[in-house]
Amino acid sequence: MKKFPEGFLWGSAMSAPQTEGHGSKNGKSPSTWDYWFQTNPEKFNQNQGPENTSNMYETYADDCLRMKEIGLNSIRTSIAWTRLLPDGKTLNPEAVAFYRDYFQKMKDSGVEPIMNLFHFDMPMWLMEKGGWEVRESVEAFAFYAKTAFEQFGDIVTKWTTFNEPIVHVECGYLYGFHYPAVVDFKKAVQVGYNTLMAHVRAVEEFRKVLPNGEIGIILNISPAYSRSNSPEDERAKEASDLLNSNSFLDPAVHGKLPDALIQLVKENQLTPETQPEDKELMKKNTVDFIGLNYYQPRRVQAPENPAVPAIMPEDLYVPYDWPEKKINPYRGWEIYPEALYDVAMMMKENYNNIPWYVSENGMGVAEEERFMKEDGMIEDDYRIEFMQEHLDYLHKGIEEGSNCFGYHTWTFVDCWSWLNGYRNRYGFYRVDLENQFERTMKKSGLWYKELSKNNGY
Ligand code: BGP
């Protein structure tokens, strides 16, 4: 039997924009997602926008009981900035009442909430001023963070600032998947830097408001594996890791940006605008723990004829199609559970063995109803196998001393996903879109309950 450390967190991750619904109701102002859906609905899978998303604004009380039903002892979700502070300054009392009751009900069900502040949902009022491109966003975020800590800090003591901050950089400023769909490497670096400073300022506010609480950040870790160990391919791997992982992980844990990243950005004429106090702020405001979302690795190689200086990240590294790769046939992503062991060792060796947890891991499946049995239950054995394979490698890392305190799946209830809508299902509960978002437990929910009860398998 594989046992996990005592007090291990078994849970799931979600986010406000993907689960709450009531996107334009109860005092909420629009985020970039609401705006983009109104202006460009054709970009969204099957015209499924952010308005209704699994309806948790109405169903949260029952959902908290469902969390308990499948043995979750913790949940990470987020607060919608646009619900709490619709104009960035004025508190929305309905939002305060909703979140307080929601978080309290989680706790009453024995579920520890980990609360995140930003999950890709930039307020439209701030976007109109330039969003993360402008320094003003840093102080706007710090004010929002302080407000959230003050309003909910008596219920929630574990917080995170951002989910996958590199995603809004990449998707919004390099590859056109998220609003404002700008393609500009230099702007992307500035957006990343301002986001990092917003994180740092939020940590600073946290220490004042909740000195006994814990704060972290959630990063998507896609460790790079190079095609060969030629110096060129190794450089490509290093560039990928520097830009995608170390850019947030190093300041969060070590309080500074890696010298190699500063050099890389300089060589490519991408250096962002900074302020004199930034270095000191970064140094002082490191985190208590790290969350790492892991889905798949990056396979990289050196580009053939790169532009110098780089115009796009592809001038520094390009994808490599590893012939041995195992693919999730229902979502297209690579399945490589071994990486979780490598990540565990990296955290132990390079990041002071800081407490960390797997904050997202899961298997997306399109058209999952094909696995539905007569009684209505989805027999998702593929998902159980996926999770167990990943846990095998995580367990090995823990046995070898990595300080991992939990494993959260993506996700608890099938939820809406950005441009994919409801195509890829990940939940322990199926959501029936035809029938008022009705929930039905999948087989993996039963499996997870046993796992959590036995603290292992
Ligand atoms: C993560 C995000 C989640 C979620 C998940 C699944 O990167 O933090 O918000 O969307 O990916 O991705 P998808 O729904 O695109 O399959």
UniProtKB/TrEMBL annotation:
One of its GO terms (cellular component) is cytosol. Transmembrane segments: none annotated. GO terms for molecular function: beta-glucosidase activity. Gene3D superfamilies: Glycosidases. GO terms for biological process: carbohydrate catabolic process. It holds the Pfam family Glyco_hydro_1. The keyword Hydrolase applies. Keywords: Glycosidase, Hydrolase. Belongs to the glycosyl hydrolase 1 family. This is Beta-glucosidase. It comes from Enterococcus phoeniculicola ATCC BAA-412.
